Known about the structure:
With about 80 residues, this protein is an all-alpha fold. The protein has two helices and no strands. Helices cover about 80% and strands about 0% of the residues.
Amino acid sequence: MPNPILVALEAEVAEATTVMASAVTLINGFAARVQSAVDAAIANGATEAELAPVQAEIDALNASGDALAAAVLANTEPV
């Protein structure tokens, strides 16, 4: 019979991994939507300089998503 503490720990890790993966999807999806808005603004005449603060936020979101994805990957056992 499996140790109940290990069974509970496995369930908590699985739940946390699912939540973290969902967060990665959310962060990357949000960054992609904002990037699309920036691209549309540039296409309609906005300059890259005008949108530089927004682009910096997009870059930060992408970095956060990448860091979270790397953490999830590093702490997830292969199936």
